[in-house]
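Minutes, project check-in
Item: structure for the 425-residue chain
Input as provided by the requester:
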Amino acid sequence: MPLSTSLDLTVVGVERIWLDVPLRPVPAEHMVREIPHWTLFEVCLVRLACGVTGFGETMCYYTHRTVTDAAVARVVRHGAAERMWDDGLGAGLQMALFDAVGRALDVPCHRLFGAQHRDRALVSWWAIDMPGEDWVSECRLAGAAGYTSFKTKARPWFCPEEQCALLERNLPPHFQVDLDFNAMLVNTAHATRVLAALERFRHVAIFETPIPQEDVAGNRFLRSQSRVPIAMHYGTPPIMTALREDVCDGFVIGGGASAVLRHAAVAAAADKVFWLQLVGTGVTAAWAVQLAAVLSHARWPAVNCHQLFEDGLVRPAMRVENGSTPVPDAPGLGVELDMEAVARYRTAPRERPYPAPGLLLAIRWPSGATTYYAHAAQYWDDFLAGRLPLFPRGVRLEHIPDDGSEEWRRLQERALAGAVHEGAR
């Protein structure tokens, strides 16, 4: 007997709203030198013919990373279920389509992804590279909020041995730290020494991308030498090469829904664990939790970075206990978009300037010398090109505040043009 009514999932409208969501003070102080644009988001609202509205978000690294007019045109007047698996739509629009379909069918998104594997998802706290004292502060906040894992950046302008020693003195034994080098150990000649020194600290749980991932032989060698698991981003080197050569213990997986499920299936077949890395506010964190619910090998804590922001934009906020959060069974993403917060942070579409104006940064070398820069891309280039020492004991990066003096202004102007080397502090 045919159904007497039908559920119309046709997309009849898409609204895009730009937000500028402030960072908490400690992340804001350090992220301004490298990724000041991380506060900009585009929220997508998708309205279906049946009257349901779904939502999602895109982090606007730059304006070309938003949902495009062409993507909107691909979904309007089409069935949401027909279009929602298209990763090319952009994160916010894809999320919103899944959320809308889940709400229309009265099921959580994880029921659309596959069979549920877990009812709690592991999550991690994230912070950029910063002085060890601020790492301790962030880890204490994380622990008080129920987290047991902290992922951060290991960089050659800070001394990771000193930072880890400070963590060891201040954190409970169960708390774990993942160190992401983003290939800044450069090669096995540097990596072998640094990783061996760091693996003795009880909190260090994972090393991520110590050297360039294309270096298959080097990564295979490092894995044979390290007692700490090594994680690499899925896809480089090609996955079959990575598995055949056994270059890592697990993966970092991100991207759209289709890619995440496809890559997670390969990792599971190879019995390789991974963490989901999908970055944004509480909206993206809710999306990641729905994905983690069906992925058997998402056994490392997910990195979503939603803790960075003063507001997660969703209600209820994520609740973490013992390092994990419940998978909501409410329809769609399982949370509601806080429209008061949306109104509060609403802004016009724009790019945030890089470099951020008015910055002066000093790398203090243990020899007593100082090198000055105006933004992070400058010293990234110098370190990777071999123009600066890699990971010397005692190195430290400092912000030099503008004291209004002519001396500060002249030094900052020189630093904008490139590295300024001084033999003394």
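Outcome recorded: The mean pLDDT is 96.
No further action items on this chain.
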